[in-house]
Design goal:
- GO terms for molecular function: FMN binding; oxidoreductase activity, acting on NAD(P)H.
- This is Flavodoxin.
- Pfam families: Flavodoxin_4.
- Residues 4-152 form the Flavodoxin-like domain.
- It is built from five helices and eight strands, in the order E-H-E-E-H-E-E-H-E-H-E-E-H.
- The chain is α/β, with parallel strands linked by helices and 157 residues long.
- It has one domain (4-152): Rossmann fold, CATH 3.40.50.360.
C-alpha cells in the first residue's frame, strides 16, 4: 500500500486540479475535504463568508474527508490561499488529527499571493511533524512544475 495521502479543499476546482496532479505523480490516495455547509458559488459572497470565518477562527464540521490518517506517513495538504491563510475546512482537518512523526507537505493555489502564511500556519498546527517545502501555483497546473517540485523535495514513491 502507498502510504501517501493527498488531502485538499477546493471551492473553484483550482486546488482540486493541483491535488489530482500530485496524486497522479505520487500514486497517493486522494481525499477531498467537504464541510457541512457549502460556501456560496458567487465569488464576492463566498469571500465575505470566508473572511468572517477566518476572523472568528471558525473551523467547520467536515462531512467528508476527515477519516483517520493513521495508515499514512506522508500527507500532502492543499488549500486555496484565502486572505493569506488556509481555508477553514483545512484548518478543521489539521486540528482534528495528530501529525506526530508524519511528513507534511503543503500545497496551495492562489491568485497572485503565493503561500503568505499558509506554510507557517500548517507548521504551527503540525509542530511535531516534518514539514517539507510546498508548492504554490498561480493559475493552471503544469505537470512539469509538479514533477520538478517533487524532485526538489526528494519525494520518492
Amino acid at each position: 500500500m502507498n502510504n501517501t495521502l493527498i488531502v485538499y479543499y477546493s471551492l473553484f476546482q483550482n486546488t482540486k486540479n493541483l491535488a489530482l496532479e500530485i496524486a497522479k505523480q505520487t500514486g497517493g490516495t486522494l481525499r477531498e475535504l467537504i464541510p457541512d455547509k457549502n460556501y456560496s458559488f458567487d465569488y464576492n459572497t463566498a469571500a465575505k463568508e470566508v473572511r468572517n470565518e477566518i476572523s472568528r477562527g471558525f473551523c467547520p464540521k467536515l462531512i467528508s474527508g476527515n477519516e483517520s490518517i493513521n495508515d499514512y506517513q506522508t500527507i500532502f495538504i492543499g488549500t486555496p490561499n484565502w486572505f493569506k491563510t488556509l481555508a477553514p475546512p483545512v484548518m478543521s482537518f489539521l486540528r482534528q488529527h495528530d501529525f506526530t512523526g508524519k511528513i507534511v507537505i503543503p500545497f496551495c493555489t492562489h491568485g497572485g499571493g503565493g503561500f503568505c502564511q499558509i506554510e507557517s500556519d500548517i507548521a504551527k498546527e503540525c509542530s511535531k511533524s516534518i514539514i517539507l517545502p510546498g508548492i504554490a501555483v498561480n493559475g493552471t497546473v503544469a505537470p512539469k512544475e509538479v514533477t520538478n517540485w517533487l524532485g526538489t523535495i526528494g519525494y520518492k514513491l
